[in-house]
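User: I'm preparing a small set of examples for a lab meeting where we compare how different chains pack in three dimensions. I only have the primary sequence for this one, and I'd like the structure in token form so I can line it up with the others. Please keep the answer compact; I'll paste it straight into my notes.
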Amino acid sequence: MTNGATTQDEDLPARISALEAENARLREAVAPVHGRGAGRWRAWLSALCIVVASVLVPVSVVTAWGRAQLVDEDAFVATLAPLAADPAVQSMIIDETMDAITAQVDFTAITSSAIDGIADLGLPPAAVSALTLLKQPAADGLESLVERAVTRVVTSDAFAEVWATTTRAGHRAFTTAATSDGGGLVVRTDDGVGVQLGAIVERVTQTLTAQGVGIAGLIPRVDRVVILGSGESLAQVRTGYAVAAGVGYWAPVLTLGLLVGGILIARRRQTALLGAGLGLLIGGGVLAIVISIGSALMAAVGAQTGLEPAALAAIYAQVSDGMARTSVVLALIGAAVAAVAWVHGRSRPAVALRSTFGSINRSLRRARTARGLETGAVGRWLYAQRVLVRALIVALAVAGLLVLRPLTVSAVILVGVLALFAWWIAELLQARPDEAITATEESAAPVSL
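Assistant: Understood. Below is the structure token output for the 449-residue chain.
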């Protein structure tokens, strides 16, 4: 076997790819006029579908999340449940609960009344003066006792149940406000829609009573609402709910339909697939950036609402976490689709890259054959049905992503790596007729000395 023959064999895949690209260019050059016209409107329609779908990608993610949170009470509670253990949120709840209690209970008046009653029993003037000096410390001590009880309740393991009850009541209140004329559990004030503190105050009262603190009986029922967001009017709330319930269901379906339709309509499906991948990448990436910017704005929102910025940041992070993960996952999937589409394109770098990997795979298959590792009928079938095999690998990858929902970045990367590995193994196990002929010729050729 001469060096010239070896070089010619190794350059064969590159020459074949170059000839295929040249043939495709020549076919386009000699295409009839009416064919060009048909291809032109298909190209425009495909591009329109893919562009509209790309714009709808972030809209679909947000509305689908909104529908899941606003329509499904259990999903809403599950999203906010971890906030019960967040120190910043606990601090906000403690402060707001104490504000609600002190607005209803005058600790100074209570202690002053008690001390004045004792002084009226005919105590010496010195004793009365001493008791008078104790009025404010006694009021402060009583308020401190209540605050410690509130802190114990909010930081206890049992607070998760109270938080879940309050959160569920808040969701029902919002749902009622959005779907009826109000009443019942509706938590809507002139300032907007918020969360009730009544359940927390009630638990504090029970805790103090169990500890033998009789003053707990003076704490009245509290209907204070923590406003987490301003609502201009009930009409806006209802409009938002209706949009989330309706659009949140159909937007993802429409987006997927436009992407698939754009690919099927396209005259050059490889180009359309590249555009669809870039659309997912841009749409998911833009949404991830917007969510990140929103997190940075929580300090300004906290200043406007009077709430602790750290608590608002924790709430925002918990609420938007699902959307952020979904947007990143979509961006990664889009990048993978775009990369695969580009590799199979007709640009010079893509052709060169395919030629390089084709040459490597060819060398590995020849080395496998030289060691007697024949794949026989299985290898011939893998070559004859290589398009079907690749489609099955893609279908299994998509099924794996569906099984692993909710998706994470690591899950997408894992599925992608496994799919590429399976694809590569299927390529190496193929038994290609042209390579078998070349191998036969090489074995029959005389060896030059």
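A couple of notes for your slides: The first strand starts at residue 188 and ends at 189. The radius of gyration is 35 Å.

User: Perfect, thanks.
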